[in-house]
Amino acid sequence: MKGLGADAEYWNALAEGSLKMQQCSGCGAWHWPAVWRCGECGSWEQGWHEVAPRGRIFTWTRTWHDFGWQAKGLPYVSVIVELDGAGGKRLNGVMADAGLPVRIGQRVTAEPWQFEWEGEAVHGLKWTPVGDESEREA
Ligand SMILES: [Zn+2]
């Protein structure tokens, strides 16, 4: 799915296998969701920068009910991840392995992934835990 809005660069980068986040060229503020104009300084100049897909879990939920996202399999774990870069902006995604324990604050890294949805390729991030096994909790 190609983006058409202010976030087009984000979706296009994901489709090509990388994560890019928006940063104001005027004042350096990071933006997500993407904006056309910076709310901090008023600049219309917004740049896109590759950011490592690493961070920590801000919150999560495990879903057992089929809402029509069979492509994800059941159950699946949705996460909101606070990025290490990009001013700590938060992105959503799914955990690669829904059976692993998950906890708020857990360190994670992601790989781009895609699935078909109503005939179109949808791009997202699949997150996996990183770091010391002893940090994991149920
Ligand atoms: Zn700005």
UniProtKB/TrEMBL annotation:
Keyword DNA-binding: yes
ChsH2 rubredoxin-like zinc ribbon domain sequence ranges: 11-43
Keywords: DNA-binding
Family matches, as Gene3D superfamilies: 6.10.30.10
Domain of life: Bacteria
Pfam families membership: OB_ChsH2_C (PF01796), zf-ChsH2 (PF12172)
A Gene Ontology molecular function term of the record: DNA binding
Keyword Transmembrane annotated: no
Matching InterPro entries: ChsH2_C (IPR002878), ChsH2_Znr (IPR022002), NA-bd_OB-fold (IPR012340), Thioester_dehydratase-like (IPR052513)
Domain ChsH2 C-terminal OB-fold span(s) in chain numbering: 48-110
The protein's name: DNA-binding protein
Organism, as annotated: Cupriavidus lacunae
